[in-house]
Amino acid sequence: MTAMDAVLRTDIPGLPEPRRGKVRDVYDLGDCLLIVSTDRLSAFDVVMENGVPGKGIILNQLSLFWFERLSAIANHHIITGDDRAIANRMGADHKALHGRAILAKKAEPLKIECVARGYLTGSLYKEYLASDGLVHGFQLEPGLLDGSPLPEPIFTPATKAEEGHDQNVSIRQAEEIEDEQTVRHASDLTLRLFRAAASHVTGAGLILADTKFEFGHTDDGLLWIDEALTPDSSRYWEADQWRPGIARPGFDKQFVRDYLEESGWDKQPPGPRLPDSVIQGTLERYIEAYARITGLPSPVTGIPA
After folding, report:
1. For residue 103, which phi and psi values (nearest 5 degrees)?
2. 199 and 62, same structural domain?
3. In-domain check, residue 3
4. What is the CATH number of the domain that holds 164?
């Protein structure tokens, strides 16, 4: 299918076993972190058996674009994403890391995920239907359809489940997990970042429907960490084909979710093996999202654009 094999895990000689998330391998270097974006693919909080070749490079490079572009709004954890600087810090040039690694500042991650939503879709739409229009303390008008715009973007925190699915929580519940001041600050940063990003992608003919941010505690305040506005953590829709209540072409993991919903999989680990057509379709969507958002050519080689 492609000339590049998927990188599903990394093991760097001389370093201890990393902490492996759904997508990223995180190595503790003492004074900083080495974070590697693999090609693993997760959906419904479960990692699939096979990955998407080059996806980690796209995620990493798109995150670097957004962290730099929006740095005036929120301090971020990036020290460098330059391959040569990373090789110098490591004392060796590991080609498997090229394009998919960063050196990052350390932070204590918040125990909540910070989600911004500009449109009624996904779990928020299900909540709307089940609660007579009351979502996260906001009373919405009746009769809205899946994909309807919200009057204004809203902050909808969620728990971080060690196992199983993350769960939406109220602001008050979030303040019981983190303190009120932290949640208020995280909410402000989340919505400011969302609005700036949504405005930028409008020029690329895209709609940013929702996205997830991660922040961490440091001695200097909250730090924007993890990834930034990637197709893994965001819903990007084709603006000129957007209509409430109908399927909306997008550049995110919805393509994978739709396949899995129809496959009969019970959404429990282990994740199934995805067919080549789903892997290729996902890759093509991620490459197009990257190119349209950044205005740059694909950062991966050996893969058809």
Report:
1. -100, 130
2. no
3. no
4. 3.30.470.20
CB neighbour list of residue 221: distance below 8 Å, 6 or more residues apart: 75, 185
State which residues form the domain around 201.
109-258
- Dump pLDDT digits (tens) for 185-195: 999 999 999 99
Has residue 61 been placed in a domain?
A: yes
206: enclosing H helix or E strand: strand 206-218
Is the same domain home to 160 and 244? yes
The dihedrals phi and psi of 262, each to the nearest 5 degrees, come to -85, -10
Instruction: Looking at the structure, tell me whether residues 98 and 138 fall in a common domain.
Output: no
Give the pairing of strands 108-109 and 206-218.
antiparallel
Say if CB 241 and CB 250 are below 8 A apart.
no
pLDDT, one tens digit per residue, over 248-279 is: 889 989 899 999 999 999 999 999 999 999 99
Task: Output DSSP code: residue 274.
Answer: P
Asked if residue 170 and residue 88 are part of one domain, the reply reads no
Q: Express each pLDDT in 180-219 by its tens digit.
A: 999 999 999 999 999 999 999 999 999 999 999 999 999 9
Helix (H) or strand (E) holding 181: helix 180-202
- Looking at residue 248, its pLDDT comes to 87
